[in-house]
Write a sequence for this structure.
C-alpha cells in the first residue's frame, strides 16, 4: 500500500524519507513540487497527484507536507487518514509537530514509523500500544538516557497488541485516579449581510483525559442524548449499548483521547452568540473607503464571550487602513491584505468597535468584492447546544476516582458576509 | 567502496554472531588504514563492546537514512549487531537491514540464522517480529526459507503470529510471483481463521495476491460480516471494499426492478433448492428477494458509519451506494456530510465522491444542501468541488436559493472560483429550463464586471446558453458584439466572434462591421481568435457577400501568410469552399449547408457523470483513470449464483428461520387471481392462495407452525370457521359470505349488509383504533385481518346526499413493507392504506400498520417519533403499543395528511431499544376518497374541468381486464374512487383528501380491446400521476 513517505518543509526541502518496500527515489517528489508551484496557495496542492509510475498522496499539516508514495490502487482516504494519524502521533509524542521537533527526534520518528506500518499496511496506530513499544521522549528521560545509556524502546514486549482491548495499555497504575472530560462545541455558521443566519450547525467533541489504574469500565450518560444527531466514536465505545440505551459505555484508553464527536442536528435552531454590525463601503472615484465594525453579544445565556478575534481579507485594491479600535489591537498586513483585530472580551455595556478609513490605490476603480469577516470566540462553562452530562460511573475497579467535566463553546468556521 | 576485503563473508560462513570479536580485533589493530572510509568512527562504535556506543552509532546511521544519505557501506558493521542484546539497538539494526538488504544480498544472509532462531522462540511476540523482519528482507535466495516460515506461522497458536504471517504473504508474492499457488493455500487457511486480529490482514493479502479468487470467500463470507465490527479500522476498510466486489458477483441487483421493489414484497426466503416444490413455482415469477446474506452485509456495515476513521465511513458509503436498494443509500449521507468537517484533504476526497453520488442519487443529499455552502476560507479546490455538488443538487425547488448563493460567490476575491461559479450557473441554466432567462440576464450583467476574467468566462457561458435559443436574444448578441473592443481574453473573443458568425442573420448590420474591425487587428490576434475571424468571414461571405466580399478576400489573404499552419490550412480550405472558381469545386454549392448548418446546443455535463463505473472511494475513481491493481467492480449477475455455497455447516437453523421468515402478505398476484378464478371460492381456492393464506396464519399465530403443504387446505377451512365464530360481535362473517359469493354477479343484495357492517364498525364508538386493538387481543386476530384485507367486497354505500365522501367501494388492499424484519432486527412492519375515512381527521389518509415480532424477546413501547414532514403534512400517530410478545402480530391505525402530494412521510419508529427511520409514500390513488355522484352530476362536474384539467389517454386493455367488472376492479384498486352507479360508461368519482378537489375518472371501452381513459382533476399533478397509475393497472 504505502511505499514510501517523504516529509517536505515549506521551502520545498525533503527533510525525512522512509521506505517500507524497495526504495523509491526522492526524485519522484519533483512531480509534487511542480504541482506545488502551480497551486496559488499551499492548501491548493491537490492531495492526490498521479505520476507515470506512482501516485503521490499528501497532507499538509503544521506547514509540513507528508507525501506518501503509492504504487497501486488504494482508497485515497485510507492513506490520508493514516497520514493524519501519523501527525497526531508525532504531536502526541513531541508536543508539537514541527520540522525541528521531527529532526531532533528523528530516531523516535523512525521507530514509530517502523511500528505503524508493515510493508505499507498499518500495523499499530493506537497511541497506547505505540507508547508501550516506544516511550515518548521527556526531558527527564533524555537526561537519564544519556547518563545511564538506557533507551526509549520499551523493555517489555508489547502485550497490548494481543489483548481484547487493544487501545488500552496493560498494567496502568496511578496514585491519583482521575478522569476529566471536556465537552467542546464549535459553531459553524454563515451569516448574511443583513444579519440573518444562512446556515448554522454545531459540531461537538468530548475529549477525555483518563488516568485510572487497572481496567476501569466507564459509563457516561447524558441528560439529553437526543440532541446528538450524528455521532462518531472512539473504537472503545460499545456501539450496541449506545444504540439501545444512549449510554456511552467503554473501557478507556490510558491518557488523552477523543471519546466522541457529534453533530447537533441543523434542524434545531442554533443560538448565535455574537452579532456584527458592519459598514464597509468604497466610493466610486474616491481613494478612501469607510470601515466600521461593531460586535455585540446575543443569545449567550449570560456567559461572557471571550478571546474574540476578528479577521478579514480586504480587497486587493486596499493599500492601507487607518482604524481606531475601542478596545484591543488590530493589525493590517499590506501585502496579504489581512486585517485582524484582537478584541478580547466583549463587554455588553460598552460594545467593542473598530472604525476608520481605508486608503485605496489612487485612480483604480472601486473594488467590487465584499470582504467576509471571520470571527473566533470562546465561551466558557457552556455547551451551546445545551448538552449536559448526567453522570459518570465506574465499574470493575474498587478505588474512587476523581471526576471532572468542563464545557466550552467556540466559534468554528464562523463567517459574516458583507 | 568502504568495505575492505576482510569483510567479504562468503555465503558459506553464515555464522555471523561469531564475527564481532574478529571485528573488534580489527578495529583495534588496523585503525590507521581506515581513514579513507567515510564512516570509520561509526564502524568503530558499532564494533565496540558498549551498548551505549552501538546505540549512538545506530542512531546516527538512522538519522543518515532519514535524510536520504547513503549508509550502505556500513552494512557489514551493522549486520553483525543483529543479535545484540539491547532491544533498541536490535530494532534499529532491523530498520537498517530491511532498508539495505536488497543492495547487499550476500551480507544480508548473515542475519538469517538469527531470525530463524527467533521463529522458534517461545514468546509469540519474538516469533512475530522475527517473521516480520525476515519477510521484509528482499533477498531472493531466502524465498524458500520465507515460504516455510510463513507456512509455519500460519498455523501458529498465537493469532498475532498468524497476523504477521498474513502480512508476510504479499511481501513474498512481490518478491517472487511464482509462489502464487502455495501462497493462495496459505491465504485459504488464514481466511478460515476466526479471530478479528487476522481477518483484516488476510483479506489484505487476498487482495494483493489473488483478488480474482472470489470462490475462497464463500465459506468465510458470513464470518467476515459478523467479525467486521470488531476488526481494527484499517482492516475494516479492506474487508468492506472486498466484500463490495464479492456481493456484486453473488447477489441480484436490488434496484433492477424498481416497481416490484416499491411494493416491498418479501416473497420468498431463499434456499428453495431441495425441499418444497411450491417454492419453485414462486421462483418462476422472480420477484426480487434480497438474499439474506446480502442483507447481512448491509446490516453489519451500517454501524461503521459511526467510525471515527474517515476511510471506514467512506468504505461503508461506497458499499451502500453500490449494493443497497435505492431507498437505503440515503443513510450514508449524514455520515459523509460529517466528514466535511474534517481535514481539507479528507474533504477533497469525500466531495469528489459526493459529487458522483449526487448525480445518481440526487435525493440523498438534498436535505444537506446547506452543508455544501462555500466559505471564503475554503481552499479553491474545495470550493470548486462544493460548487459541483451544489450544481448537481439543484432542482426546480432549490434553484432559487442556490442561485442566491451563487450571487454571493461571484463577488468573491478568488477569481478562479468566480469563473467556476459562472460555469456552474451555466449548467444550472441548461439543466433547469425555468431559470434559463434569469441566469442569462445575470450573466449579461456580469459582462460589465471590472474583472476581465469574469467577463470572459461569462461570454463563454452565455455563448453556450444562447445556442439553445438564439432567436430571442439578438439584443444580447448585439451587446456582446460591442464587447469585442474591450475584452482581451482570447477564448472570450473567439466565443463572441463565433456567436456573431453563427447568428449573423440576427445582427445583419453589426456583423460586417465587426469583421471590418477584426480584419484590422487580425495579425495581432491569438490563434483561436484568428480561426474564428476566418469563420466569421466565411459565414458572412455566404450570407452577405455584397458587403463583405472584399473584406473576406483580405482576411483570407492575411491568413494565407500566417505563421501558424493551422490557420494557413484553414484559409486555403475556406477559400476553396466558398469562392466559386472555374474548376467548380463540387462542394462549393453545399458551402452554405456546411457552414450554416444548425448546430446542436452543447450539453453542459458534470465531469462526474458516469464516474460511478469506478468503485467509489477508490483511487481510480478520484483520478477517473484506472490505477494499477484496480479491481473492476463487476456488474450484477442476471441470475443469482447458488447461495448455498456460503453455507458453512448443515444448519438446523435454516429450518427455524424458514418458519419465522414466512412471506408477509403475498398480494401481488391478488388481482390476477381475482380474474383468473372469478368464481374462486375459498374452499377450492387456487393453490397459491391457500398456501399463502396458511403462511399468513402461520406467521401470525404460533398454533400452526407445521405449515406443511398438504395440510394447508384442510387447515384453512377450520380456521375460517373458527374466525367466523369469533368475529361474531361485528357480524363480519357477512364479508366472508360475500366473499364466497360469485363475483361475476357482484351486485346488489348483500350491499346493504356490507354497508351496515361497515358503517357499524366505523361509527361504533370503538372507532378504528380500538377496533384494531380488539382484533389484536384476539388470539387469531390475523385471520380476521386477512379477511378484512382480502375480502373482495364491494362496499358501495348509497348515501342520500350527493357528492359526499363515502366509504371505499372496493378494497383489495395492498400491503407495503415499512420495515423489513432483517432491518428491524426481528421486528417486521407492514402497512396498507385502509381506505376508510380516518375518524379523527377527515383530511387524513388512514394507514393501517401491522407489527410482527420475530424476535424471541418482547418488543415494548412501539411508537412514532420525530416525524420529519414536508411542510403542511401532518401525522396522527397511533397510540403507543406497550408490549408485543414474541411471535405476535398487532395492527394499528394512523392518519397522515399528505397534503395531496405523493411526498413520503418520514418518521422514526421506536421500540424501547431501537429506532428505525421509515417512510410511507402513498401511491397517488390513495390520496383521495370516493364520492357518491349521479351520472348527470358527474357530467356536469366534468364539464367544468375541461381543458388543462382534463387528461385523455388511449390504451390497450390488458389480457386480464376485458370485462367491465375487471375494469372496475382495476380502477378502484389503483385509486380510491367510487363508481358512478348506472353510468353509461365506466365512471368513477373521488376527491382529494386535503383540498377536496374532485377527481373524475372515465373509462370508455371500445372494440378491439382499446379503451379511452379520461381523468379530470383541477390538480393537474394528481391527474397526470393518476392517469399513469390507472393506465398501468389496466394495460397489465
Amino acid at each position: 500500500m504505502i511505499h514510501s513517505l517523504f516529509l517536505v518543509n515549506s521551502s520545498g526541502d525533503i527533510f525525512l524519507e522512509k521506505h517500507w518496500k524497495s526504495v523509491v527515489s526522492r526524485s519522484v517528489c519533483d512531480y509534487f513540487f511542480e504541482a506545488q508551484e502551480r497551486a496559488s496557495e499551499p492548501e491548493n496542492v491537490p492531495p492526490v497527484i498521479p505520476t507515470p509510475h506512482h501516485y503521490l498522496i499528501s497532507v499538509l499539516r503544521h506547514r509540513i507536507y507528508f507525501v506518501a508514495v503509492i504504487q497501486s490502487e488504494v482508497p485515497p482516504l485510507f492513506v490520508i487518514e493514516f497520514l493524519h494519524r501519523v501527525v497526531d502521533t508525532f504531536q502526541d509524542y513531541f508536543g508539537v509537530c514541527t520540522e525541528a521537533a521531527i529532526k531532533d527526534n528523528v530516531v523516535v520518528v523512525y521507530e514509530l514509523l517502523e511500528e505503524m506500518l508493515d510493508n505499507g499496511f498499518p500495523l499499530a496506530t493506537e497511541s497506547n500500544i505505540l507508547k508501550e513499544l516506544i516511550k515518548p521522549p521527556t526531558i527527564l528521560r533524555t537526561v537519564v538516557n544519556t547518563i545511564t545509556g538506557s533507551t526509549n524502546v520499551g523493555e517489555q514486549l508489547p502485550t497490548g497488541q494481543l489483548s481484547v482491548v487493544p487501545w488500552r495499555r496493560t498494567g496502568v497504575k496511578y496514585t491519583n485516579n482521575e478522569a476529566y472530560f471536556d465537552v467542546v462545541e464549535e459553531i459553524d455558521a454563515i451569516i448574511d449581510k443583513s444579519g440573518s443566519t444562512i446556515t448554522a450547525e454545531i459540531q461537538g467533541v468530548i475529549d477525555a483525559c483518563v488516568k485510572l489504574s487497572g481496567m476501569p469500565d466507564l459509563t457516561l450518560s447524558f441528560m439529553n442524548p437526543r440532541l446528538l444527531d450524528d455521532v462518531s466514536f472512539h473504537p472503545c465505545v460499545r456501539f450496541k449499548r449506545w444504540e439501545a440505551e444512549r449510554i456511552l459505555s467503554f473501557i478507556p484508553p490510558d491518557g488523552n483521547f477523543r471519546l466522541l464527536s457529534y453533530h447537533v442536528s441543523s434542524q434545531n435552531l442554533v443560538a448565535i452568540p455574537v452579532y456584527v454590525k458592519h459598514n464597509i463601503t468604497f466610493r466610486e472615484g474616491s481613494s478612501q473607503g469607510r470601515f466600521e465594525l461593531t460586535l455585540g453579544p446575543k443569545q449567550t445565556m449570560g456567559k461572557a464571550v471571550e478571546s474574540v478575534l476578528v479577521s478579514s481579507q480586504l480587497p486587493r485594491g486596499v493599500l492601507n487602513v487607518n482604524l481606531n479600535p475601542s478596545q484591543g489591537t488590530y493589525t493590517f498586513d499590506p501585502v496579504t491584505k489581512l486585517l485582524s483585530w484582537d478584541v478580547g472580551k466583549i463587554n455588553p455595556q460598552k460594545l467593542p468597535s473598530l472604525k476608520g478609513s481605508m486608503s485605496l490605490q489612487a485612480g483604480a476603480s472601486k473594488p467590487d468584492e465584499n470582504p467576509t469577516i471571520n470571527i473566533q470566540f470562546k465561551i466558557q462553562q457552556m455547551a451551546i447546544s445545551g448538552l449536559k452530562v448526567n453522570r459518570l460511573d465506574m465499574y470493575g475497579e474498587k478505588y474512587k476516582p476523581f471526576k471532572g467535566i468542563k464545557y466550552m463553546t467556540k466559534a468554528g468556521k464562523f463567517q459574516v458576509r458583507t | 567502496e568502504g568495505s575492505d576485503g576482510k569483510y567479504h563473508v562468503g555465503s558459506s560462513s553464515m555464522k555471523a554472531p561469531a564475527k564481532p570479536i574478529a571485528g573488534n580485533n580489527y578495529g583495534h589493530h588496523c585503525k590507521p588504514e581506515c581513514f579513507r572510509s567515510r564512516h570509520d568512527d561509526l564502524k568503530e562504535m558499532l564494533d565496540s563492546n558498549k551498548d551505549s556506543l552501538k546505540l549512538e552509532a545506530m542512531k546516527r546511521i538512522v538519522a543518515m537514512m532519514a535524510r536520504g544519505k547513503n549508509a550502505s557501506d556500513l552494512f557489514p558493521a551493522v549486520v553483525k549487531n543483529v543479535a545484540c542484546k539491547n532491544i533498541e539497538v536490535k530494532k534499529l539494526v532491523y530498520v537498517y537491514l530491511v532498508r539495505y538488504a536488497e543492495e547487499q544480498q550476500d551480507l544480508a544472509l548473515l542475519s538469517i540464522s538469527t531470525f530463524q532462531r527467533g521463529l522458534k522462540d517461545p514468546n509469540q511476540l519474538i516469533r512475530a517480529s522475527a517473521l516480520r523482519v525476515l519477510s521484509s528482507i528482499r533477498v531472493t535466495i531466502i524465498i524458500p526459507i520465507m515460504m516455510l516460515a510463513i507456512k509455519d506461522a500460519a498455523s501458529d497458536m498465537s493469532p498475532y503470529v498468524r497476523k504477521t504471517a498474513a502480512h508476510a504473504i504479499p511481501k513474498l508474492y512481490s518478491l517472487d510471483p511464482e509462489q502464487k499457488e502455495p501462497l493462495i493455500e496459505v491465504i485459504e487457511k488464514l481466511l478460515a481463521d476466526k479471530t478479528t486480529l487476522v481477518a483484516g490482514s488476510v483479506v489484505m493479502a487476498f487482495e494483493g495476491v489473488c483478488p480474482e479468487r472470489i470462490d475462497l470467500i464463500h465459506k468465510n463470507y458470513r464470518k467476515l460480516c459478523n467479525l467486521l465490527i470488531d476488526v481494527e479500522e484499517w482492516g475494516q476498510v479492506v474487508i468492506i471494499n472486498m466484500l463490495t466486489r464479492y456481493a456484486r458477483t453473488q447477489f441480484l441487483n436490488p434496484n433492477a426492478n424498481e416497481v416490484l421493489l416499491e411494493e416491498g414484497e418479501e416473497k420468498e426466503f431463499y434456499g428453495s433448492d431441495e425441499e418444497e416444490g411450491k417454492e419453485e413455482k414462486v421462483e418462476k415469477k422472480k420477484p426480487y428477494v434480497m438474499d439474506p446474506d446480502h442483507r447481512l452485509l448491509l446490516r453489519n456495515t451500517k454501524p461503521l458509519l459511526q467510525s471515527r476513521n474517515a476511510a471506514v465511513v467512506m468504505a461503508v458509503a461506497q458499499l451502500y451506494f453500490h449494493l443497497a436498494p435505492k431507498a437505503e443509500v440515503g443513510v450514508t449521507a449524514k455520515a459523509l456530510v460529517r466528514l466535511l468537517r474534517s481535514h481539507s484533504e479528507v474533504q477533497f476526497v469525500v466531495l469528489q465522491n459526493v459529487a458522483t453520488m449526487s448525480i445518481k442519487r440526487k435525493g440523498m443529499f438534498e436535505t444537506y444542501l446547506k452543508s455544501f455552502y462555500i466559505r471564503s476560507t475554503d481552499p479553491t479546490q474545495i470550493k470548486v468541488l462544493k460548487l459541483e455538488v451544489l450544481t448537481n443538487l439543484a432542482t426546480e425547488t432549490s434553484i432559487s436559493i442556490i442561485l442566491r448563493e451563487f450571487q454571493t460567490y461571484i463577488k468573491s476575491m478568488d477569481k478562479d472560483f468566480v469563473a467556476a461559479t459562472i460555469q456552474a450557473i451555466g449548467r444550472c441554466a441548461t439543466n433547469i429550463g425555468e431559470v434559463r432567462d434569469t441566469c442569462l440576464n445575470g450573466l449579461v450583467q456580469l459582462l460589465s464586471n471590472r474583472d476581465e476574467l469574469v467577463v470572459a468566462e461569462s461570454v463563454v457561458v452565455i455563448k453556450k446558453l444562447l445556442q439553445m435559443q438564439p432567436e430571442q436574444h439578438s439584443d444580447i448578441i448585439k451587446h456582446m458584439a460591442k464587447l469585442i473592443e474591450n475584452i482581451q481574453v482570447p477564448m472570450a473573443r473567439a466565443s463572441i466572434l463565433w456567436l456573431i458568425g453563427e447568428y449573423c442573420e440576427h445582427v445583419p448590420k453589426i456583423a460586417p462591421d465587426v469583421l471590418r474591425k477584426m480584419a484590422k487587428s487580425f495579425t495581432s490576434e491569438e490563434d483561436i481568435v484568428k480561426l474564428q475571424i476566418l469563420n466569421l468571414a466565411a459565414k458572412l461571405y455566404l450570407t452577405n457577400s455584397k458587403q463583405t466580399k472584399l473584406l473576406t478576400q483580405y482576411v483570407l489573404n492575411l491568413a494565407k501568410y500566417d505563421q501558424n499552419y493551422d490557420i494557413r490550412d484553414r484559409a486555403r480550405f475556406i477559400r476553396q469552399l466558398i469562392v466559386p472558381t472555374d474548376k467548380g469545386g463540387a462542394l462549393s454549392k453545399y458551402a452554405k449547408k456546411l457552414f450554416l448548418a444548425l448546430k446542436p446546443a452543447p450539453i453542459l455535463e458534470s465531469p462526474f457523470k458516469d464516474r460511478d463505473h469506478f468503485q467509489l472511494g477508490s483511487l481510480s475513481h478520484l483520478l477517473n483513470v484506472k490505477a494499477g491493481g484496480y479491481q473492476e467492480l463487476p456488474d450484477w449477475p442476471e441470475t443469482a449464483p447458488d447461495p448455498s455455497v456460503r453455507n458453512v455447516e448443515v444448519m438446523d437453523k435454516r429450518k427455524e428461520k424458514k418458519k419465522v421468515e414466512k412471506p408477509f402478505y403475498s398480494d401481488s398476484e391478488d388481482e390476477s387471481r381475482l380474474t383468473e378464478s372469478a368464481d374462486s371460492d375459498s374452499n377450492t381456492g387456487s393453490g397459491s392462495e391457500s398456501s399463502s393464506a396458511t403462511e399468513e396464519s402461520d406467521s401470525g399465530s404460533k398454533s400452526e407452525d407445521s405449515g406443511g403443504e398438504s395440510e394447508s387446505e384442510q387447515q384453512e377451512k377450520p380456521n375460517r370457521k373458527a374466525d367466523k365464530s369469533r368475529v361474531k360481535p361485528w357480524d363480519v362473517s357477512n364479508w366472508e359470505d360475500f366473499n364466497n359469493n360469485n363475483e361475476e354477479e357482484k351486485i346488489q343484495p348483500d350491499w346493504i349488509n356490507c354497508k351496515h357492517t361497515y358503517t357499524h364498525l366505523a361509527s361504533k364508538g370503538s372507532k378504528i383504533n380500538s377496533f384494531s386493538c380488539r382484533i389484536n387481543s384476539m388470539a387469531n386476530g390475523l385471520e380476521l385481518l386477512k379477511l378484512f384485507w382480502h375480502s373482495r367486497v364491494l362496499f358501495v354505500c348509497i348515501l342520500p346526499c350527493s357528492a359526499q365522501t363515502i366509504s371505499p367501494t372496493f378494497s383489495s388492499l395492498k400491503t407495503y413493507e415499512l420495515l423489513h424484519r432483517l432491518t428491524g432486527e426481528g421486528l417486521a412492519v407492514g402497512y396498507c392504506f385502509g381506505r376508510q375515512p380516518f375518524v379523527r381527521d377527515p383530511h387524513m389518509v388512514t394507514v393501517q400498520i401491522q407489527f410482527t415480532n420475530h424476535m424471541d424477546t418482547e418488543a415494548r413501547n412501539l411508537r412514532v417519533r420525530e416525524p420529519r414532514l414536508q411542510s403542511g403534512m401532518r401525522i396522527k400517530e397511533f397510540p403507543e403499543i406497550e408490549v408485543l410478545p414474541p411471535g405476535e402480530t398487532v395492527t394499528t391505525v394512523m392518519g397522515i395528511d399528505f397534503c395531496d402530494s405523493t411526498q413520503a412521510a418520514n418518521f422514526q419508529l421506536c421500540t424501547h431499544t431501537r429506532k428505525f427511520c421509515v417512510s410511507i409514500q402513498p401511491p397517488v390513488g390513495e390520496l383521495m376518497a370516493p364520492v357518491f355522484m349521479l351520472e348527470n352530476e358527474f357530467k356536469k362536474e366534468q364539464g367544468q374541468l375541461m381543458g388543462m384539467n382534463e387528461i385523455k389517454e388511449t390504451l390497450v386493455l390488458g389480457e386480464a381486464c376485458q370485462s367491465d367488472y375487471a375494469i372496475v376492479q382495476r380502477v378502484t384498486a389503483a385509486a380510491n374512487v367510487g363508481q358512478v352507479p348506472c353510468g353509461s360508461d365506466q365512471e368513477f368519482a373521488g376527491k382529494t383528501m386535503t383540498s377536496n378537489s374532485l377527481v373524475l375518472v372515465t373509462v370508455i371501452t371500445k372494440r378491439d380491446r382499446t379503451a379511452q381513459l379520461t381523468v379530470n382533476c383541477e390538480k393537474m399533478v394528481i391527474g397526470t400521476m393518476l392517469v399513469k397509475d390507472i393506465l398501468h393497472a389496466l394495460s397489465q
Q: What stands out?
A: The helical segments of chain A are 29-38, 76-94, 99-104, 106-116, 127-133, 139-148, 239-245.
